[in-house]
Amino acid sequence: PKDVGILALEVYFPAQYVEQEELERYDGVEAGKYTRGLGQQQMGFCAAHEDINSLCLTVVQRLVERGRLSWDSIGRLEVGTETVIDKSKAVKTVLMQLFHDSGNTDVEGIDTTNACYGGTASLFNAAAWVESSAWDGRYAVVVCGDIAVYATGNARPTGGAGAIAMLVGPNAPLVLERGLRGTHMEHAYDFYKPDLSSEYPVVDGQLSIQCYLRALDRCYAVYRRKAESQWQQAGIQRPFTLDDFKFIIFHTPFCKLVQKSVGRLLLNDFLATPNPDTAAGLYKGLQPFRGVKLEDTYTSKEVEKAFQAASQEIFNQKTKPSLLLSSRNGNMYTPSMYGCLASLLAQSSARDLAGSRIGAFSYGSGLAASMFSLRVSQDASPGSPLDKLVSSLADLPARLDARKRVAPQDFAEIMKRREETHHLADHAPHGSQADLFPGTWYLTRVDAKYRREYARK
Ligand code: ACO
Questions:
Q1: 33: CA distance to ligand 1 center in Å?
Q2: Which of 348, 341, 310 has its CA nearest to residue 326?
């Protein structure tokens, strides 16, 4: 099969949110800390009657319905999530209820977990299946979903929730570029969830940021080396730079970190360039940083500031359009980077995207990270697969506008209720149907044996 990649993309986020500016006042922190400091505008959240199963049910059904697909046409479905409500039973098995009437049970794939990286691992698996001898000609579906909630304190404003489903197959408008992947994995305790009775992670915020940036450096170095060696084989001898990505999307814990990450990539380019011009142009005034070593700069505010300023225009052009969902719904964990992809597609024209390379950096604490790229098809004509994909996401801003704003004290109460009822048997979870978008699945009951029942609004 040729041009294996993403054919369609469906987004689900909760129908309610808190305003970060109001949360600043409620939390008693300095005005501007969450909004200007972290770059966050709003944060979506779920009441107790939404869980990881309901989120994924909603997004998969939407993908199939809106794409007018038949349930028989799917031969693989896998889920990337870190929202674990059962240590054995996969979310994937719950999703098989959707296939019930079609009689299709021949569906490979299961859940994958490592913090925010599970969705990317699932996407790589799905693409590998389509390219393999095991492929039976049908589509693969990749689902990423999470409910990202933190205990009260400085991490709480970096939460979010949502799910994304992607249809994967050949002749895609977004092609996973073969051989162009840089991965970095290592053992770190930056963010983890050892307390299985709680939804909240144990997180070392500053360490997690350093781990993220180090993984970014390493992945970019490997990605670049592989791109350059592909070029060499084709007789082209030149370095890979940020110019070779028309767009760059990132796993987005909060938007400010992504802006800093673009600066970080520019620092990588700068250090890899043999004789950069520091008198004029992109690297103007950066001469004092010529001798720095990447590994010594993770906490340097000087380096951060200089390269953030130098990369401002690159950020505005290549990355800013991808931050719509992240700034207004927050960190969805596994779907975060795919939400950036959806936002980029929603805010660009098919003509602007056609033929471009989108760089993608996926990070999951603990840690697992990859940089890879998507090549957008050349054909942007009306009715083309690219045009259909782009138009299917055009209503994203309007859908965000249609959500209900909730006061911070009500949000805090709902979080409290989630804490109290999380993993409780024999109860009906609290939450109103009125606070859900039409077509949303929700949890109606957990019985005495912890079996969960769902209904669709
Ligand atoms: N106006 C403008 N900016 C302000 C203000 C203000 N009044 N007050 C503070 N700021 C700025 C700070 O200067 C800082 O910006 P800088 O780093 O560019 O200097 C920013 O706001 C945040 O302030 P901090 O004091 O650094 O915030 P704190 O340490 O309290 O919390 C953190 C931030 C660590 C990100 C926390 O929210 C957290 O732990 N989040 C979860 C972990 C996370 O998301 N990690 C990222 C990778 S791992 C993952 O994806 C889960």
A1: 8
A2: 341
426 phi-psi bin (left φ>0, alpha ψ -120 to 50, beta other): left
- Amino acid identity of residue 313, one-letter, is E
Can you tell me the distance from the alpha carbon of 401 to that of 34, in angstroms, rounded to the nearest whole number? Answer: 20
**Class of residue 379 by CB neighbours under 10 A (exposed 0-12, middle 13-18, buried 19+):** middle
Condensed to tens digits (0 to 9), the pLDDT of residues 147-195 reads 999 999 999 999 999 999 999 999 999 999 999 999 999 999 999 999 9
pLDDT per position as a tens digit, 378-420: 999 999 999 999 999 999 999 999 999 999 999 999 999 999 9
Q: How far apart are CA 22 and CA 41, in angstroms?
A: 10
Q: Which two tokens stand for residue 292?
A: 């720095």
Rg (CA), the chain: 22
Check: complex ipTM more than 0.90: yes
Reduced to 3 states (helix: H, G, I; strand: E, B; else coil), residue 111 is: strand
Active-site residue flag, 219: no
Q: Could you confirm whether 100 is annotated as catalytic?
A: no
CB atoms within 10 A of CB 235: 6
For 263-320, the pLDDT digits (tens) are: 999 999 999 999 999 999 999 999 999 999 999 999 999 999 999 999 999 999 999 9
In the three-class reduction of DSSP (H, G, I as helix; E, B as strand; rest coil), residue 149 is classed as coil
| Structure-block tokens of residue 426 | 């024999």
24 is catalytic: no
249 closest CA partner among 154, 354, 156, 120:
120
Question: Is residue 106 within 6 Å of ligand 1 at its C-beta?
Answer: no
**158 CA to centre of ligand 1 in angstroms:** 9
pLDDT for residue 142: 98
Half-sphere exposure of 44 (CA within 13 A, CB side): 29
Distance 214 CA to ligand 1 centre (A): 18
137 vs 125: CA distance, rounded Å: 15
Q: What is the mean pLDDT of residues 14-40?
A: 98
Catalytic residue among 211, 251, 255, 340: 251
> What would the DSSP string read from start to end of 45-91?
---TT--HHHHHHHHHHHHHHHTT--GGGEEEEEEE----S-SSS-H
Q: What is the DSSP letter of 430?
A: P
Q: 25, 33, 120, 213: which to mutate for ligand 1, most atoms within 8 A of CB?
A: 33
